């Protein structure tokens, strides 16, 4: 009688955390930061860097707890985002993707995570009473936090999305509609660079950010673990 043993495939053991779950955690932390900061600020939303300087100074002086929570949760969201990028890049490699897409996804995701972390830390600095009492420092730091967490983060998030969507489309790893939607979202994210030149282009930031987060959740759950025979190569 021959004994049989069940062995776990190495690629299964090294698959890493489910990327869909990681994307849900990123989104939940980011949205929690927006919601809690608004609640702690008595319903007042986080100020726009394009708003009046006096209103901005007043907000950061009177709502230090809201600012601190917002910064902390932004920083927290950057951690699972980095893990998502590493996990998806490794999975694309294991699925046989040899084109630059997997590396672009990794680079874009890591940089998007880094910029989000920097935005969170600068926002945390804005919550310190010694800083909140200095209007000029508040304004400068607000612009810096916006630059990191706005166009800096969103444009690089678009690279992460494009790096997954392109091989997802060409190698048929993702549903065609989802892959094409990812390319469209990535294009909007790249256009958000115009925010650095025109204030009106800032409308592209929430559009690309929130649709992008939703897309990362969907792609994270639908990206296969193993290659099937019907899937092409990229």
Sum up the structure in keywords.
9 helices; 234 residues; single chain; mainly alpha
Concise account of the structure shown:
This protein is an all-alpha fold and 234 residues long. It contains nine helices and no strands. The chain is elongated.
One letter per element, helices H and strands E, the order comes to: HHHHHHHHH
Helix run count: 9
For the report, how would you describe the main beta sheet? none
Strand content: under 5%
**For the terminal residues, how far apart are their CA atoms?**
45 Å
Estimate the helix proportion, in percent. over 70%
Average pLDDT works out at 89
Radius of gyration: 20 Å
Overall morphology: elongated
What would you call the structural class?
mainly alpha
Oligomer state equals single chain
Tell how many strands the DSSP assignment holds. Answer: 0
**Spans with pLDDT under 50 lasting ≥5 residues?**
1-11
Counting structural domains, the number is 1
């Amino acid at each position: 009688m021959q004994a049989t043993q069940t062995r776990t495939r190495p690629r299964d053991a090294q698959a890493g955390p489910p990327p869909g779950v990681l994307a849900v955690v990123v989104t939940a932390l980011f949205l929690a930061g927006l919601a809690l900061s608004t609640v702690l600020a008595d319903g007042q939303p986080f100020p726009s860097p394009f708003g009046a300087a006096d209103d901005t100074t007043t907000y950061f002086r009177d709502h230090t707890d809201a600012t601190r929570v917002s910064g902390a949760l932004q920083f927290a969201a950057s951690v699972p985002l980095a893990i998502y990028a590493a996990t998806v890049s490794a999975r694309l490699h294991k699925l046989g993707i040899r084109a630059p897409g997997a590396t672009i996804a990794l680079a874009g995701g890591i940089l998007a995570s880094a910029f989000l972390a920097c935005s969170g830390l600068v926002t945390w600095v804005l919550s310190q009473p010694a800083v909140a009492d200095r209007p000029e420092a508040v304004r400068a730091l607000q612009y810096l936090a916006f630059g990191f967490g706005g166009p800096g983060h969103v444009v690089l998030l678009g690279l992460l999305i494009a790096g997954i969507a392109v091989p997802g489309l060409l190698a048929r790893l993702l549903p065609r509609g989802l892959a094409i939607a990812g390319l469209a979202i990535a294009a909007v994210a790249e256009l958000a660079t115009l925010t650095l030149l025109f204030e009106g282009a800032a409308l592209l930031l929430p559009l690309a950010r929130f649709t992008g987060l939703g897309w990362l959740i969907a792609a994270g759950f639908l990206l296969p673990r193993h290659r099937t025979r019907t899937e092409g190569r990229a």
